[in-house]
Amino acid sequence: MNSAGKKTDSFLTLKGIRTTFGTTVALDNVDFEVKEGEVVCLIGPSGCGKSTLLRTANWLTPPDKGSVILNGSVVGSAPSGRINRTEARKLNSFRSEMGMVFQQFNVWPHLNALENVVRAQLVVAKRSKELAEKKAVQILIDVGLEDKLFEWPDNLSGGQKQRLAIARSLAMDPVVMLLDEPTSALDPELVAEVLDVLKRLTDEGMTMIIVTHELGFAFQVADRVAFMESGKIIEDGSPNVILKNPKTDRLRLFLDKLNTTAFAPS
Amino acid sequence: MSIDFSIFIEYLPFLLVGFWLTIKIVAGALLLGLPFGLVLALGRKSNFFIPRFAATSFIEIFRNTPFIIQVFLFYYVLPFYGIRFPAEYVGTVALAAFGSAYFAEVIRGGIDAVPKGQLESAKAIGMSDWQAMQNIILPQTLPIILPPLTNQTLSLLKESAILSTITVQELTMSGIRVQGETFRPFEVFIMVAILYWALNETIATFMRWLEKRANRERGSNLHATRLKKAKRLETLT
Question: What is the pLDDT of residue A263?
Answer without folding.
Answer: 54
